[in-house]
Write a sequence for this structure.
């Protein structure tokens, strides 16, 4: 292509002006042979013929100058921007540098925008992926919530039934008692007993529900105290023998010779365990017998409940040991049925073990084994002295009545008040052998009253009563100066035994050398 | 002194320029300024076989090598491949780039830097991806141009490889 000379001269001038070319002729060993143009524009003004150019232009090191190469858009370390053309000629090479400052700047501007948009798209991709994940997660959660709510619904329905059946029975019996004035004494007694039995089952049901709630809330406390083993077994017989008789089952309870009369254990919870095991055994046995046996070996109490029922298949046995509150173990019979799962947890909470031997058709043996130190040495002792006075601070009149009657029966003098302040006054005035305080009294609560009493120099034992039995209640009471702790309503055998023992030790040493029970909590 | 040209390549915004800035000047900027064309820096280092001058060609981000990149890569003694650990697709780009380099120049010494390890919350690269990548010839080193973690270590390992290759070219 040829152009008029005027035009080609014009073009050449424009390129020279716009590109500020610099041209170097470089030998194969990188030595500078000649230089033209505007080296200053490229920071090469110090370069002289004979110098090694690779120091000033590192891009030329390690290049083989044997063919034409174009390197567009090069920036050096200090920011010069240019295009490079390497034009070989025999054993040397022309290096042509053309200024690209403006051009690069413009390219950077649009490349920057383009890349930022791509990064944003990338972020969007990530957010969408997260959204999809979150939606999937949400679906799973919703499903779980629905399952849970269905389970709860079923649970409430079952529980309502569990309550309704015995309540309806009580109501029917009571209605007969009220409506039929000509009812014979024997029948009246029968009805009364039936009401008693069904009410007892309701109490167990509530006990189990409370235990379950506490286990779930992890606010469970184990509290050992002196327990009368024979009295405990007698109580169980009293309740379960008639239940067994109703189903024409034979019922037997045995306590081995060597079982101490008194042991240290959590009386209330041990009872609950045996009630659950016996209740279940009777419920599921349709002919034959149910037996309970208590043995003692090496400071351990071993209780076995054996029945001749249909027995448990292996998977049912395993289900007993499933973690509770997985919705698997459901109430199967009033009271006791609520849970062998709970029973197992209770036993474990008392550092004991529950084992099951059973097979289809061979009946079931459930064995509970618990550490239970003998307490015979501290227990066998004198009856109350005529001087032994007990002051009770308790705001629930039913509990007050119960305590007053039973303690009077046992030979104590009793004085009751219904709030903490009155209690402090009464104790300081009457100086009793023992004070019983309710943990949750209005105004000054039991432990606060106990603290006041200790500060005023009262030395005799103080027994705290609480309906909750939570660990923090027990700790609060014992750290405030109470000597011992019992749950409400107290089991009367245990209560009497404990009071006797507290008064004895109080007589012997006085506070604060209280009985070992509180240290074994 | 031995000089060696090394090129740093990888997808856009993975942190190539930041890695060079950290290595050559011990600097870092959180601001993104994209590279156009190629930027050339030098850094002298000590290797077990003596002192060495690295001439580092910081090539604009791309996921494929074209004619212009082949021109930039001519005469390279080694390659640094960078990917962004918070953007999984940049690892795929790196695998393609590695294949392109080996096709054109044969098996050059190469180091693979998985950058932005400081951003663990946004991390997208799991062990599976790492294993697949390793099977295809890229054994990633987790690095951070921001914290400086592993940056010098990775590049110095490449320098050692280049030195031992030129000392024993078999
Ligand atoms: N958090 C974090 N950010 C980093 C790191 N390395 C680079 N960045 C940021 O990532 C962005 C891109 O970094 P550059 O170094 O410019 O990336 P590049 O690979 O050179 O990008 P191109 O030149 O466009 O290909 C910048 O905002 C950097 O600050 C790192 O290790 N951690
Ligand atoms: Mg860059």
């Amino acid at each position: 292509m040829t152009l008029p000379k005027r035009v080609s001269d014009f073009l050449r001038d424009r390129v020279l002006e716009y590109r500020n070319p610099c041209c170097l002729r470089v030998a194969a060993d990188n030595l500078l042979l000649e230089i033209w143009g505007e080296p200053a524009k490229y920071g090469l003004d110090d370069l002289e013929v004979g110098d090694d150019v690779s120091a000033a232009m590192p891009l030329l090191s390690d290049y083989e100058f044997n063919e034409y190469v174009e390197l567009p858009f090069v920036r050096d370390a200090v920011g010069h921007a240019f295009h490079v053309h390497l034009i070989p000629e025999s054993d040397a090479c022309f290096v042509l540098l053309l200024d690209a400052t403006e051009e690069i700047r413009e390219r950077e501007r649009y490349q920057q925008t383009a890349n930022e948009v791509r990064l944003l798209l990338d972020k969007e991709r990530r957010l969408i992926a997260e959204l999809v994940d979150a939606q999937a997660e949400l679906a799973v959660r919703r499903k779980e919530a629905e399952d849970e709510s269905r389970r709860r619904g079923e649970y409430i329905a079952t529980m309502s039934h569990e309550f309704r059946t015995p309540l309806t029975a009580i109501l029917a019996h009571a209605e007969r008692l009220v409506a039929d004035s000509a009812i014979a004494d024997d029948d009246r007694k029968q009805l009364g007993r039936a009401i008693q039995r069904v009410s007892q089952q309701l109490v167990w049901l509530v006990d189990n529900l409370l235990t379950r709630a506490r286990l779930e809330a992890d606010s469970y406390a184990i509290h050992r105290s002196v327990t009368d083993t024979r009295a405990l077994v007698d109580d169980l017989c009293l309740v379960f023998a008639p239940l067994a008789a109703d189903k024409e089952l034979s019922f037997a309870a045995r306590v081995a010779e060597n079982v101490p009369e008194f042991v240290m254990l959590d009386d209330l919870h041990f009872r609950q365990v045996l009630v659950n095991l016996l209740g279940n055994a009777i419920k599921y046995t349709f002919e034959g017998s149910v037996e309970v046996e208590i043995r003692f070996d090496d400071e351990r109490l071993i209780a076995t409940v054996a029945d001749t029922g249909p027995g448990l298949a292996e998977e049912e046995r395993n289900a007993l040991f499933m973690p509770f509150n997985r919705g698997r173990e459901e109430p199967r019979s009033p009271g006791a049925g609520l849970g062998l799962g709970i029973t197992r947890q209770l036993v474990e909470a008392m550092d004991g073990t529950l084992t099951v031997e059973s097979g289809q058709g061979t009946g079931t043996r459930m064995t509970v084994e618990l550490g239970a130190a003998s307490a015979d040495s501290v227990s066998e002792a004198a009856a109350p002295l005529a001087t032994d006075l007990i002051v009770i601070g308790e705001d629930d009149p039913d509990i007050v009545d119960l305590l007053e009657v039973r303690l009077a029966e046992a030979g104590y003098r009793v004085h009751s008040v219904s709030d903490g302040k009155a209690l402090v006054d009464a104790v300081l005035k009457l100086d009793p052998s023992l004070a019983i305080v309710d943990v949750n009294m209005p105004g000054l609560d039991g432990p606060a009253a106990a603290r006041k009493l200790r500060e005023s120099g009262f030395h005799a034992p103080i027994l705290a009563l609480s309906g909750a039995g939570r660990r923090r209640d027990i700790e609060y009471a014992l750290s405030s100066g109470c000597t011992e702790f019992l749950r409400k309503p107290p089991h009367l055998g245990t209560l009497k035994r404990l009071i006797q023992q507290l008064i004895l030790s109080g007589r012997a040493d006085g506070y604060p050398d209280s009985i070992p029970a509180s240290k074994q909590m | 002194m031995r000089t060696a040209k090394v090129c740093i390549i990888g997808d856009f915004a993975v942190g190539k320029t930041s890695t060079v800035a950290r290595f050559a000047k011990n600097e870092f900027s959180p601001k993104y300024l994209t590279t156009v064309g190629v930027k050339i820096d030098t850094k002298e280092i000590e290797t077990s076989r003596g002192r060495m001058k690295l001439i580092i060609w910081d090539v604009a981000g791309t996921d494929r090598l074209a004619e212009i990149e082949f021109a930039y890569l001519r005469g390279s003694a080694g390659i640094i491949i960078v990917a962004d650990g918070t953007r999984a697709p940049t690892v795929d780009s790196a695998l393609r780039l590695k294949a392109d380099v080996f096709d054109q120049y044969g098996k050059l010494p190469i180091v693979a830097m998985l950058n932005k390890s400081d951003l663990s919350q946004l991390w997208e690269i799991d062990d599976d991806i790492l294993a697949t990548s390793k099977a295809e010839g890229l054994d990633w080193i987790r690095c951070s141009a921001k914290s400086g973690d592993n940056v010098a270590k990775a590049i110095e390992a490449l320098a050692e490889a280049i030195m031992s290759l030129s000392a024993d070219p078999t």
Summary: Chain A touches chain B through 28 residues (CB under 8 Å). Chain A has 14 helices and 17 strands. The domain at 12-99 of chain A is CATH 3.30.450.20 (Beta-Lactamase).
